[in-house]
Amino acid sequence: RPADARAVLLPAQCPVCGSPVEREEGEAVARCTGGLTCRAQLNAGLLHFVGRRAMDIEGFGEKLLAQLIEQGLVKSPVDLFQLRAEPLAALERMAEKSAANIVEAAEKARHTTLPRFLFALGIRDVGESTAEALARHFGTLEALIAAVEADAPTATLEKKKDRLPRLQAVPDVGIEVASQLLRWFTDPQHLQLLAELRATGIEWPEVIQKTVEGPLSGKTFVITGTLPESRDAVAARIEAAGGKVTGSVSAKTDYLVAGEAAGSKLAKAEKLGVAVLGWEALLRLIETGPL
Q1: At what angle are helices 128-138 and 141-151 packed, to 10 degrees?
Q2: Calpha distance 243→275 (Å, rounded)
Q3: I want to staple 277 with a disulfide (CB 3.0 to 4.6 A). Which of 85, 107, 142, 281 is the partner?
Q4: What does the alpha-carbon distance between residue 213 and residue 234 come to, in Å, rounded to a whole number?
Q5: What 8-state DSSP symbol labels residue 54?
Q6: C-alpha–C-alpha distance, residues 140 and 143, integer Å
Q7: For the residues of 33-98, what is the DSSP string, one character each?
Q8: Can you tell me the distance from the alpha carbon of 129 to that of 150, in angstroms, rounded to the nearest whole number?
Q9: What's the chain's Rg over C-alpha atoms?
């Protein structure tokens, strides 16, 4: 560190909305506590919500969302499904045809999947693979919320493995992710948001919870690096053989499938003593099963 280095003083209040800024113990990141009442967080949250791998609502770019927020037309994700073509067409650089296309895209996006919906909510530490794992494990949003409610009384126990047992039973969910789920799904404002989103007509097909028996049954895999096939294709191979694929390495992981340019996941697997497989070794394992 240079001799003339100066300490960086974090702001006590968000420069955008004025809400208190907090930094949780043990974390380096300081966050605004304003949530969706903060215009900066609202804009970022909406961009995530409409993203291709989330609710996949075409036509909503950063500039358009900023205009909608500025004009007071959108104050939460719920408002995206209640927009009408006429006020949209009156916005800068927006024609009638474009406005109609956006309304149609929002209508189409009402029909989604539970993993996409969970990912779109922007729950901290819940990525695509975790959202998929939650959907597969619980099957319905109601079952997930019920598990959160059942785990809530044990949340303050000192032993991490006993604190949130129902949530931590999900592959890819450790105590940190379980704690974020508990925090999100016990917030009255978030529960109100869920109710309002469902009231707009958002729906998804029932998640079929099926168990595939095969040579990899009971084994949990994580995929990292560049492999001869896409990650989705590799995951499909593993799941067809009865294995489970999660997004992060933990003590529950049985194998890490590592391709070229494997990074932090490989280092963590080696630290935890998780078995590391290359492409050819994975193919042999799928064919013969663990020895």
Answers
A1: 90
A2: 15
A3: 281
A4: 17
A5: T
A6: 5
A7: S-GGGSHHHHHHHHHHHHSTTTT--TT--HHHHHHHHHTTS-SSHHHHTS--HHHHHTSTT--HHH
A8: 24
A9: 22
Which of 160-174, 227-241, 269-283: highest mean pLDDT?
A: 269-283
Burial class (CB in 10 A: 0-12, 13-18, 19+), 86: exposed
Residue 157's SS3 state is coil
The whole-angstrom separation of Cα 206 and Cα 211 is 16
Q: Are 83 and 60 in contact (CB under 8 A)?
A: no
pLDDT tens digits, 78-102: 999 999 999 999 998 888 999 999 9
**Gap between the Cα atoms of 124 and 122, Å rounded:** 6
Q: Global pTM?
A: 0.73
According to DSSP, the residues that pair with 266 across neighbouring strands are none
- Decide: 205 and 238 in contact? Cβ < 8 Å: no
- Can you read off the two tokens belonging to residue 224? 């990292």
Q: Which two tokens stand for residue 118?
A: 């969970």
Which residues, in sequence order, are CB contacts of 169 under 8 Å at separation 6+? 137
Tokens of 30: 């300081």
Residue 43 corresponds to which tokens in the numbers above?
């804009």
Which of 18-27, 140-149, 154-163, 229-238 shows the lowest mean pLDDT across its residues? 154-163
How many CB atoms within 10 Å of residue 209? Answer: 11
